[in-house]
Design a protein that fits this description.
Strand content: 5-15%
CATH topology of one domain: Serine Threonine Protein Phosphatase 5, Tetratricopeptide repeat
Radius of gyration: 22 Å
Strand order of the largest sheet: 4-5-6
Distance between the termini: 19 Å
Order of helices and strands: HHHHHEHHHHHHHEEHEEEEHHHHEEH
CATH class of one domain: Mainly Alpha
Number of helices: 18
Number of strands: 9
Shape: globular
Structural class: mainly alpha
Helix content: 40-55%
Largest sheet: 3 strands, mixed
């Protein structure tokens, strides 16, 4: 029990003060596990520093820096794991995670840490006096958006989808009703500096989504629509809200929010000629939010791109099921021959083949450095896809007709235009456009589909929906110390 408590302190929500490495006195006075909120909350300028630390936490390898993105792909069907691999993500690929596995524990810990840091900022921002009102509003909006994003991502990873039907039965933690009635994750909206008094309970998925949308509603009102993708602004909050509403099947809301981003004038779909080179560049015209990483801040051999690049571990490759979706001429499906351990060959290509395996070029590594890539969290093409799906499901044409939205993407990728569409075409266009960006498993779940893997996969040939295996277990270190916590079925 003592080890579990220590572990919980170490990986969860409290070592926020480490963000202030420049404050020598601060580091000398406070113990490792303390949260010295008086140092953080005394001024706008200190809160601004705390916000910078909050962005840094997003790049953690157990969150958006790597594993959250990888997990949604390696557990699905667009990505395959090489039989000979570095032993990373194998439990995820094989669906053999347990409540003691490292991936769920570290994911739970870093997300709670980010939530607590956001809550520290939000608890203080209305009381500081320095900074202009516009600056304080912007900072508050950024913190609200990050809190919303983390709660949403926690719910996606540790809870069954919002629309889980009542027929799911024992698969749900709690009571599934098709409207988020089953258990989600804790909804923490106040900071804490005492781990021994924090025993949160899981709220329903609906309650989680309600908080997420309330945060985003407030954030949209606080921040102007802008185009700098390295920092959250009104467009970031709108785009994230469109994504959340899509998962909730609020079709009109999703279409309206996506339209607001598309029509903001801040972004533009990349042409076919510019699309492939864009993956080696920072802050393109399509990028709504991306995590900025440099040679001094990227994760090196633990970076996201290192898992896809033959110069790195090169463990994750494209499945034949994905490759079969691309038609000739579509720049997203171009495959060229590569050399072992050499990385992507020169030229305009999305994939390269080495020894019979096909690797993606979405993480080419800037300046010839494997793993040095900005993580693109939200792109403009996703807004077109969200609007197309939402309008199709509702039988509406908010902003544009679904056919026009899909063809807007396809035209800019040198793919043939559709003359008619259906749900399968929309799903497959999402696969073609968003592969390896951390969407696929969540799309399978929110659509209530089985996971089917063909002969080129070596593990987990089929996982039927609904299934307890699709979501992470609550970590055992949380279960050990928190009497209010309920475990997911099957663990």
């Amino acid at each position: 029990m003592k080890n579990s408590i220590t572990r919980k302190i170490m990986v969860a929500i409290l070592p926020v003060f480490l963000l202030f490495a420049a404050c020598d006195d601060f580091l000398e006075k406070d113990p490792y596990y303390a949260t010295p909120t008086e140092n953080i909350t005394s001024s706008y300028s200190n809160l601004k520093i705390a916000l910078t630390g909050l962005y840094n936490h997003l790049t953690d390898l157990d969150y958006l820096g790597k594993n959250f993105i990888l997990s949604a792909d390696i557990r699905a069907d667009d990505t395959n794991l090489k039989i000979e691999n570095s032993n990373r993500m194998t439990a995820q690929y094989k669906y053999t995670l347990t409540d003691g596995s490292g991936d769920p524990q570290y994911a739970w810990g870093i997300m709670l840490k980010v939530l607590n840091q956001a809550n520290i900022i939000l608890s203080a921002i209305d009381n500081v006096e320095d900074g202009t009102q516009a600056e304080r509003d912007q900072l508050k909006g950024e913190a609200l958006t990050i809190r919303a994003m983390v709660l949403f991502d926690m719910a996606r990873q540790f809870a069954q989808p919002y629309n889980l039907p009542s027929s799911a039965g024992s698969i749900a933690a709690g009571t599934a009703d098709g409207n988020g009635g089953h258990l989600g994750v804790p909804v923490l909206t106040s900071p804490t500096d005492d781990p021994f008094s924090l025993f949160p309970e899981r709220k329903t998925v609906k309650e989680v989504y309600d908080q997420v949308l309330a945060d985003l509603d407030a954030a949209v009102q606080l921040m102007p629509q802008a185009s700098n993708p390295n920092f959250i602004n009104g467009n970031t909050a709108l785009a994230l809200r469109a994504r959340v509403k899509l998962y909730k099947e609020d079709w009109a809301g999703a279409a309206n929010d996506a339209t607001s981003v598309i029509e903001s004038g801040n972004y533009e779909l990349l042409s076919a000629d510019a699309y492939i080179p864009s993956w080696g560049k920072e802050n393109t015209s399509e990028s709504i939010f991306e995590l900025a990483l440099t040679k001094s801040t990227y994760l090196g051999t633990t970076a996201l791109g290192y898992m896809y690049d033959t110069r790195g571990y090169g463990d994750m490759v494209a499945s034949s099921a994905l490759l079969d979706l691309f038609e000739e001429g579509d720049v997203r499906g171009v495959v060229k021959q590569g050399e072992p351990d050499a990385g992507p060959p020169d030229g305009e290509l999305m994939f390269y083949e080495v020894d019979g395996l096909v690797y993606t070029n979405k993480y080419p590594g800037r300046d010839g450095t494997a793993g040095l890539d900005n993580t693109k969290i939200i792109r403009l093409s996703e807004m077109y896809l969200i609007r197309a799906e939402a309008n199709f499901e509702a039988g509406t044409s908010i902003g544009a007709a679904p056919l026009d939205d899909l063809n807007a993407i396809r035209t800019n990728r040198d793919a043939s235009v559709f003359t008619e569409i259906d749900a399968t075409k929309i799903e497959n266009e999402r696969r073609r456009e968003l592969c390896f960006e951390g969407h696929r498993l969540f799309d399978i779940l929110r659509k209530g589909k089985d996971l089917e893997r063909g002969d080129d996969y070596w593990a987990a040939q089929s996982v039927s929906f609904p299934n307890e295996l699709f979501i992470y277990p609550i970590p055992d270190n949380e279960m050990d110390v928190n009497p209010n916590m309920v475990q997911n079925p099957g663990y």
